[in-house]
Design brief:
single chain; globular; 3-stranded mixed β-sheet; mainly beta; 5 strands; about 80 residues
Length: about 80
Amino acid sequence: MNGEKSVFLVDTCAEVSLISSSTPGLAVKDSQVSPVSITHQPVAVRGEAEVLLELRGVQTQWKFLVVDNLRDSVLGADF
């Protein structure tokens, strides 16, 4: 991710992809998305960021919602 090795949780039930606000180098933009958790609790979103991902030599830009207090970044079903 952005040239650094990273580990992601793949969650095919998550409708969006999430990344921690503590991830270095994020260019966070405003977001109008208001997701809720599986327990229907609102998820506080700081914004969204485009991130360069590379998987087995294939590169792509991907949009993540940026959130606080996230231990593992999540690749959701939108990926």
